[in-house]
Design a protein that fits this description.
It contains 22 helices and seven strands. Helix 1 (4-21) packs across helix 2, helix 2 runs parallel beside helix 6 (129-152) and helix 9 packs antiparallel against helix 15. It has helices spanning 4-21, 46-57, 63-67, 82-88, 96-118, 129-152, 176-193, 209-222, 226-239, 253-257, 287-291, 304-309, 338-341, 395-398, 413-426, 432-436, 439-446, 453-458, 463-474, 481-487, 492-495, 542-547, and strands at residues 75-76, 272-276, 301-302, 408-412, 498-502, 515-516, 521-525.
Length: 557
């Protein structure tokens, strides 16, 4: 189905890119050219408002959400990558991505402010239509602010379009708590207006009440406001419109959600609360190819840290379970949480990476993966850790450039359930009933044994650790890991070397230029560091400091 949202993103974004610039300043501070639609001739009717809202929505991170996984320790990008550099702690205040994120987020905030300052002048096509669009814009502005607060802490709280003569352009930063207070209240305002039903038809992919509440729950959890996070998550649960995606087969349901079968347009997905939709030949991305690129190195590869985090099917971690075997590469995938083999490529899986690490035999089927490839010969997909992802991969799209049209999931109901459980625990209120209505629904989908408080106590498992583990494996490759590690104050994880397979499994790793850890594991990156408190915040970008010294710099930078 060609949704209205997708068609508008293509047609209207180009029209409005220059328009929004006339009411604000590029980079939050720079003057923009005035060759755009005059402000007084716009904002006349609901159709124009919808065009403007869609233009803002078109800027929301799509595949770039997955790219941010490279800042955490779940994933390794093989070559130079700015997100990877940020995650490794080795980057300067002049790092371009740091400034780009500032510019892009404040661009979204500026455009949202312009909309909200002008929408009331427009004639409505139906009662309440304009307020509904304004509510969607409030959610988009809150999403942008959630990134700048996480990256920089105290940030300028800008709530109106600014001109160069406004003192606020060169003002100081607003305390983080005050910014968070505002965006949580603004999400409440939006939620009170938005419809609780899942958008369909021409509104497919649009923002609804569930999206406003789910984003509120995410932000409140990140800021340690656990009572607010619990309340917001429970409100989403109580809407009664969301359910975990399932095709009836625990062995494939989780994986299928991230394929074309899980697209919102198919009408079967009642789990995804907020997504960036894609449509063949109109809006596409390149994720499948980047994960299993058939003639180069895989751009996203799982790390040993992620692989080892999956429980065994008895509910115990690998260091406690008698079911765990690591004598061979194949053995580590046996008797594990089924999400492991629905996220990470397993010998025998179909893939798009062509010839794997077996000696090349023209009689072998290159569409079946059996062994990782450690040399780059242009005939197959190389891995720097020995592991590959299958999550988010459509094998038929791997051989093509930029021909993926599966949706990018920004907020799922699964995350809401995880937020509810974590928020309850952090308030000392978690019960087995809470787990059964949240985390155990995720486990039921894949046929995994339940999380049981009595079992964990009997086996010496820390409940907080297990809740965090659950979030890690459920949301792997969805761009959340870096933010979680930082909010948990576990920055030391980001300083550890990135490791891969056990070298003893593959004789070729004992030869050549491979770096092997003292414990016998392939090392893909080792020049990492994390300074506390420095790396819990990003530096204020140097270009922004040059324009406005009143912003000040974050500690350690």
């Amino acid at each position: 189905m060609k949704s209205l949202m997708i068609r508008q993103c293509v047609y209207y974004t180009g029209i409005l890119v220059c328009f929004f610039s006339i009411t604000g300043c590029k980079d939050y501070l720079d003057r923009e050219p005035l060759d755009a639609i005059p402000n007084e001739r716009y904002w006349k009717n609901t159709e124009q408002l919808e065009m403007a809202m869609t233009a803002i929505f078109s800027r929301v991170k799509a595949k770039n959400t997955v790219d941010m996984e490279n800042m955490g320790e779940n994933t390794m990008w093989p070559s130079t990558n700015q997100y990877k550099d940020i995650g490794s702690g080795v980057f300067p205040v002049t790092q371009p991505t740091v400034n780009d994120e500032w510019r892009n987020m404040y661009r979204d905030i500026r455009e949202s402010n312009t909309f909200l300052a002008n929408y009331r002048t427009a004639a409505e096509t139906s009662p309440g239509a304009n307020e509904l669009l304004a509510a969607e814009v409030r959610v988009l502005r809150a999403l942008a602010y959630s990134f700048v607060v996480s990256f920089w802490g105290d940030v300028p709280l800008v709530l109106r379009p600014l001109e160069l003569g406004d003192e606020e352009v060169y003002g100081e930063r607003t305390p983080r708590e005050e910014v968070v207070d505002f965006i949580l209240a603004d999400l409440d305002t939006a939620a009170a207006i938005l419809s609780p039903t899942i958008p369909t038809g021409n509104r497919l992919g649009r923002i609804n009440k569930g999206a406003a509440l789910a984003l509120k729950a995410r932000i409140a959890l990140a800021e340690g406001r656990y009572d607010v996070a619990e309340e917001a998550a429970k409100a989403v649960m109580d809407l009664g419109v969301y359910r975990l995606y399932s095709n009836g087969n625990p062995a494939t349901s989780y994986w299928e959600l991230f394929t074309n079968a899980g697209k919102l347009a198919n009408g079967r997905n009642q789990e995804t609360i907020l997504a960036r939709l894609h449509l063949m030949d109109i809006i596409m991305h390149n994720l499948s190819r980047e994960i299993q690129v058939p003639d180069q190195s895989a751009r996203f590869v799982p790390t040993r840290s992620l692989v080892d985090s999956y429980l065994c099917t008895d509910g115990l971690p690998i260091n406690k379970s008698p079911m765990y075997q690591d004598s061979t590469y194949e053995s580590i995938f046996r008797n594990r949480d089924p999400r492991m083999t629905q996220t990470i490529l397993v010998p025998g899986d179909t893939w798009g990476g062509r010839y794997d690490g077996r000696p090349i035999n023209e009689n072998d089927n290159p569409s079946v993966f059996m062994r990782p490839k450690f040399n780059q010969d242009g005939r197959g997909c190389m891995t720097t850790t020995g592991y590959y992802y299958k999550k988010y991969v459509t094998p038929s799209a791997v051989g093509l450039v930029g021909r993926d049209d599966n949706d990018i999931h920004l907020i799922r109901y699964a995350e809401v359930l995880l937020t509810y459980a974590e928020a309850r625990f952090e308030q000392g209120k978690l019960t087995q009933e809470d787990l059964d209505r949240s985390i155990n629904l995720l486990r039921d989908r894949v046929g995994m044994v339940h999380m049981d408080l009595g079992f964990m106590a009997a086996n010496g498992l820390d409940v907080r650790t297990e809740i965090r583990r659950e979030r890690r494996v459920e949301l792997a490759l969805e761009g959340q890991r870096y933010f979680d590690v930082r909010r948990w104050k576990e920055g030391e994880r980001l300083a550890a070397p990135i490791e891969g397979v056990k070298a003893a499994w593959f004789p070729e790793l004992s030869r050549g230029s491979f770096r092997i850890s003292p414990e016998g594991y392939l090392q893909a990156q080792w020049n990492r560091r994390f300074e506390d408190p420095k790396n819990y915040l990003w530096p204020i970008p140097q270009p922004q400091l040059d324009r406005n010294p009143k912003l000040g710099q974050n500690p350690g930078w």
